[in-house]
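Forum: Protein Structure Q&A
Topic: Joint prediction for protein chains with partners

I've read a bunch of threads here and the consensus seems to be that you should model interacting components together rather than docking separate models afterwards. I'd like to see that in practice. Below is the full input, 1120 residues plus whatever partners are listed. Could one of the regulars post the assembled result?
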Amino acid sequence: MRFSNMFIPTLRDVPADAESVSHILMLRAGYVRQLASGLYIYLPLGWRVMNRINKIIREEMDAIGAQEVSMPVLHPAEIWQQTGRWDAIGDEMFRLKDRGGRDMCLGMTHEEIMTWLASKEIRSYRDLPQIWYQIQTKLRDEARPKSGILRTREFIMKDSYSFDVSEEALETNYQLHADAYHRIYERCGLRFFMVESDPGMMGGAVSHEFMAPSPAGEDEVAICKGCGYSANVELALSAPSKNNPVDWQTEEVHTPEKRTVQEVSNFLKLPPSYFLKSILLITDSGPVLALVRGDQELHEKKLARVIGSHRPAQKVEVKGILGVEAGFIGPMGQKIRTIADESLRDGVYVSGANKPHYHMKGIRAGRDFQAEWHDIHVAKEGDFCVKCGQSLHVERVIEIGNIFKLGTKYSMPLKAVFLDESGQERPIVMGSYGIGPARIAAAAIEQNNDKDGMIWPDSISPFDVEILPLNIKDPKTMQAADTIYKDLTDKGFEVLMDDRDERAGVKFKDADLLGIPIQIIIGEKNLKEGLIEIKKRRTKEAVRVKVEEAVETYIAGRNK
Amino acid sequence: MRFSNMFIPTLRDVPADAESVSHILMLRAGYVRQLASGLYIYLPLGWRVMNRINKIIREEMDAIGAQEVSMPVLHPAEIWQQTGRWDAIGDEMFRLKDRGGRDMCLGMTHEEIMTWLASKEIRSYRDLPQIWYQIQTKLRDEARPKSGILRTREFIMKDSYSFDVSEEALETNYQLHADAYHRIYERCGLRFFMVESDPGMMGGAVSHEFMAPSPAGEDEVAICKGCGYSANVELALSAPSKNNPVDWQTEEVHTPEKRTVQEVSNFLKLPPSYFLKSILLITDSGPVLALVRGDQELHEKKLARVIGSHRPAQKVEVKGILGVEAGFIGPMGQKIRTIADESLRDGVYVSGANKPHYHMKGIRAGRDFQAEWHDIHVAKEGDFCVKCGQSLHVERVIEIGNIFKLGTKYSMPLKAVFLDESGQERPIVMGSYGIGPARIAAAAIEQNNDKDGMIWPDSISPFDVEILPLNIKDPKTMQAADTIYKDLTDKGFEVLMDDRDERAGVKFKDADLLGIPIQIIIGEKNLKEGLIEIKKRRTKEAVRVKVEEAVETYIAGRNK
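Posted by a regular:
Agreed with the consensus. Here's the joint model:
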């Protein structure tokens, strides 16, 4: 492909509203444009990357026996009503009415429709297992679309669904997917790992996420280098650092106007880990008191798994329910439901004294308060692994895929059943599995860039190689360029040739910005010696080789 | 691919609600399933066909220098408001609000978004020409979805858009598309032709449709075998058969209770072509009288191009406006706007006499009534070509593509401009071009089927060849099947092998239903002589060849 025939609108300046590196570079290099909040147009270069990623995904899905289908974006409400998600999902779902006034929605995911299809077509255990997948458009009305193509309201997703006779059979398909996902990310050149995750709105018992480490990520994972334990911090278990070594008797301490852990910690000259933090929350079934250690953060999602949806109490509610103003509350003598973090089981603490401007030293679980015990704190760097006791490492990551064991959550309400070998009707056991190719592209850029632009992994670069004839008016330059272009193209490589009548500096700058991994530079000076230059985008190392050896040198370099 | 690993849910019975042959066969052969009215799921076989068609489309689009991009399904209303189509398009457009209450719509087509992109990115004549295309999902809330995948509410479309400096340059891109479309349909094995068409909601001055002859079509085209003139009957010009040869004096005739042309024609024993039919219509700017010859039908769309949108007058309106009851009206002495069909210019006619239960013989244009003259009749079989005078043939067709010269209809309101060589700002001149791959698939089936099932053209068949080992329990059969399968697959062919443990009859029936063009049949009896059978699906001709010659015989047959 010749640059002059291609629509590559590069930008000199950093776009004002772009946040992440991938967002900035995809705009600057002319890969994408934003149509509206969370809605992106893929320009020719961006779309080439997506197609290369999708090809890898297809190959790996086909290799595990998955079969590609294609389902509509537009869904009738009835099927979503049958599983309850029509009501359970809020503003994230785009809803509309058709001309007949019927409720419809835009597919956020396809568990409902896939299960509906299985309910119509699967009859017998002989029809199972099945894996059906599609690479198709999803729509989710994100509250805060951001970071370019990382979090959009419309996106392409490879979603697959497995249908099995039993949990054991599901385990096989689940593992096949986990392995296929590993191969996909490896082939796409990403650094990544698989972690335990929260099934969230998908439901089901077990799920894992695939995460690409990057500061641009919206998630955090906790990883134990000792035993390999890794999980999204949304559910990562951890043992905080050791408890304080003191053994105080209970004692009221005057702490005038000192309300927060930080204020009291400074005032009493004790580290935050010596404190017990009490937080009052309001649920549909009444108030709940949550207790965490002073150096820990309460994890809303972990707590939500215990008490359901909740909100923080307002000041006036704290006073009304606990009889003391916020800042001085403690669990002692409180009659409401109390959830305490595991880290508070042992040791003695300073807590609010349930008396204005006083705190109480020497508070001890079991003796001074009763509670239900759960891990409700946010796992953080330096916490200890609950499995092996070694230090946890917390890393920011981009979610690039997820896999769910759904069990019969969808097959039961949609009556997707089969007759087993004994002729008995049983619900199909399902899994669902998602990969976002746009996130793979963005993660690849986040993990591979420098001050000059992107650096694509070979496998998903929009082109394999870029040829830069520096002076297109020099016939010898163009003859060499055309020869190498033809030779590479004939060998099946995708080649971009910058045939624009531009200064060498502009071509170098754009080539680095575009990030094609190898540049073949054809300059008049080298050419006089019969040489061209082959340059690696990543290291900027260049070798000079004979014109007629350019292609074989390029190929030899690729295979390294 | 092995049949046993593939999801091909064939049906024995003809589905009750399927209308067209393609609809019935795609359901029966397990190619598609209907999710809801006008919403279809492509199963693995159907999706393979779509991918093969899309590959051909991509190759031909790339060959004319078109560049593939991808745009969202979801559009902000503002851009559609700027071109006026937000208001001009009715219930066909799916509309919704996002969580912020902003008006959005689902893309029926992408003129607005493509032009918006051009307005942001095109600066200079040096940036032109451009052709951008996508193969992407469109949504239209059809009033009456029907015929399976022929008229659906959600469908995939290849839509391309050309951007040029002038009408002359547009002509080049328009012709490039017309040629590419010819190649696409030829490669897909369709019988088709290109006809003049009505631009409809796209606007613009010139447009053509590509039509595949089929009784399942919803359109009709008029074709002149003399000069090659061809057009959608929506705008086809035609000269009806010769006028009546009589030359009556005006004379009132009593026609008691005879109102319709048919009734009066029977009563007076004169053919319908001797009559003048007057039809009263109501428009926003008042009543209009339309006149056509008694043997012709008024063409609503042709008339709409003259008088705009309109509706038939009710009986009470006819009486009120014309002073006489419906059935006896004539154009004589009427003071309202009158549009007459060209066929009435000459000759004398029988018309309503504007007097209850009377008609008037001897009515003549110019003398007895004045009118604006237009072609407002439906062209029909046996009419004469207005260009060369030969007979017109009218054929039912499936619309499989269309191309539009848009001019500056979209670039003006969206301010998509460029600076020309003299530095002057000018609007970009545009074209738009659509192909529906699903319609190609359906048309291919409509044109190629027999009582046993589909017969795919080689190029778009889900598989190139199907191998039928008749007894999978016979090791020699399976050995031959596996050898041929491997050999064909290694040579790059897509092969389906029916490895199911089914009776030969079931395999034959399903193979014919699925319509893969070549069947390689491996039976024990032939195998004893070292032979297999190669059978053409279309003709059912079979040849017996040696096992080791199967592949070369297949390849040789393909190239014929």
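Chain A touches chain B through 48 residues (CB under 8 Å).
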